[in-house]
């Protein structure tokens, strides 16, 4: 599955790439109930850093999203 660009809404007072509060995918807003884990990966060739979050959504499912530090965009992985 290819990454899908999404919109992320941050918690008030935080930078959106540090603490996502909810995200919108396919027109549906999903609140992040809990951040289960987070990590950073950097590509060996392109050196692009991606900040990953595994989260529990208000829809009851677990989701993996990431922030691309080069493009400054969020993706659903």
Explain what the structure shows.
The structure is a single chain. A six-stranded antiparallel β-barrel has the order 1-2-3-4-5-6. 14% of the residues are buried. The chain has one domain (4-76): Roll (SH3 type barrels), CATH 2.30.30. The chain is 0% helix and 62% strand. It contains no helices and six strands. It starts with a strand and ends with a strand. The chain is mainly β and 77 residues long. It has strands at 4-10, 20-25, 28-42, 49-57, 62-68, 73-76. A hairpin with a 4-residue loop joins strand 4 (49-57) and strand 5 (62-68).
Total separate domains: 1
| Percent in strands | over 45%
* Helical content (DSSP H or I, runs of 4+): under 10%
Low-confidence residue ranges: none
Average per-residue pLDDT, rounded, comes to 91
Output the radius of gyration.
12 Å
CATH architecture: Roll
Distance between the termini: 8 Å
Number of H- or I-type helical stretches: 0
Per the CATH scheme, the topology name is: SH3 type barrels
- What string, H for helix and E for strand, traces the elements in order? EEEEEE
**What order do the strands of the largest sheet run in, or round the barrel if closed?**
1-2-3-4-5-6
* Helix vs. strand class: mainly beta
Number of strands: 6
> Could you describe the largest sheet, including whether it forms a barrel?
6 strands, antiparallel, barrel
What global shape is seen?
Answer: globular
CATH C-level label: Mainly Beta
